[in-house]
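# nightly structure sweep
# worker-07 picked up a monomer target from the shared queue
# config: single-sequence mode, recycle default, output format = structure tokens
# input follows
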Amino acid sequence: MAFQLSGTKLLFALAGVGCAAALTGAVVSSHKEPAQAPVFDPAPNPYADGIYANGIIESDQAHASNVNVYPEVSGTVTQVPVHAGQTVKRGDPLVQIDDRVQRATTEQLEAQAKAASAMLEELRAQPRPETLVVAQAQLVAAEATAKSAHDTYEKQQHAYDLDPHAVSRDTLDTSRNSSLVADANRVTAQRQLELTRAGAWEYDIRNQQALVQSLEKAAQSARVLLSKYTLRAPADGTLLSVNVNGGAYVSPQGVYNTYTQATNDPLIVFGSSPQTLNVRCYVDEILIPRMNAPGAIKAQMFVRGTKTSVPLEFVRLEPYVSPKISLSDQRQERVDVRVLPVIFRFKASDSQRVFPGQLVDVYIGR
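# output follows
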């Protein structure tokens, strides 16, 4: 009986503890923490019925946005004489790739082209005076030999006619044959002199001309390829990013990025002069009909984290509505929203310090 009474008290005690815990939990859960203040005030709409759009700052380009510089050849970088933020002129060297093999190949082809050109000049300059003198001397010698052999034969023939026993028939035949051979040598020397005077054959000259042109084209192609081992600034502007160091291996696909492990980063991101910058906005397709005509479009930009408002100058719109993409990276996913790119311009001095690639808020007035 005493044991049953003790168990009943224990049950009542546990029930009381449970009720207390439930009440405590209800009180705690009903308590609401005050909302934290925003990190920065949201951009106010300066127009009565303005259209909002996300924007990204980019360099002022006539077409597209920034210029990504990739090499057209592969190799190891030997020198990077520039740094990010540097202002360069058109043609300034940006990156030097090891070109020793290509330089040697170019010099070899140039030497071959020069040798072929010298051979062509030699053919055109024929006959060589010294060669002509030798051919003339050979003809004189052949004529003298032929005359001597002919005179000897006539003397022996005359002696044989007077007395057949004075000269043997065999000696007479040998003398006659020697005269004929000497006369043939004279004719050969005459033909050789004519050939020497005629100079190089026209077909030999044409063949050599074609060889010279072929080697010169090969050397020219090698020189052009050699020039591609030095990446140069495509125009006057500013280097927004330099993603390569000496010793790195690069290819037309780009350079390996240690942090993102991407293998297709550009070596250089090139932008225009920093005096003016562009803002690229993407307007939702359902808001396009609410926009003014291009000549009447006005807008203001708000730099996030500040209270800075910058008036924007309309530049152009790109009349192709495309699927919405992330403004800060490449395409990540397709969504059911399509947008119209609208480009504005502003002077960098009109705003706080901003950089290409920075996201901003834009309101387009109606």
